[in-house]
Amino acid sequence: MRIYTHPACTRHDPGPGHAERPLRLVAVTEALREAFPDALHWEEAPRASRGQLLRVHDDALLALVLDTPVDGPMALDPDTVLAPGSAEAALRAAGAGIAAVDAVMHGEVRRVFCAVRPPGHHATPSAAMGFCLFNNIAVAAAHACDKHGLSRVAVVDFDVHHGNGTQAIFDTDA
To answer: Among 2, 9, 52, 107, which has the highest number of CB atoms less than 10 A from its own CB?
Structure first.
């Protein structure tokens, strides 16, 4: 199985005591490396482009996340923080999903896991929220349809609660 990840994903640091912290990703990648030392193929997650992000997000959200100068953690809402490493982490997290779609669609692999952060399923077309800056799975699903000609993509969200952002992005799709 191929794993996409990137060190930048650990540099998105919402600050002390925040539930969505870098150590979550470190714990996942260390556990995977220990449990499956020879079965996983690790790849560096590329950056998503602005054009790829614009398939599901508006210009204002991209400007907020990518162009806002930040010297320290800046609250976007009660749960969501923009910090100095956040933009690069968010680009890599969204890019991992795109690379995963491409790898499967090109027949390189059958299974892919993206070990990235920040998470994405709460980000709506116009808002970062619920720890999420960009909606990584929505970016990947839109890429699958636009670049690989798929007419439908199933998104299985196994988080403990509803992915409102993913629903908001695809709610009008038939």
So the answer is: 9
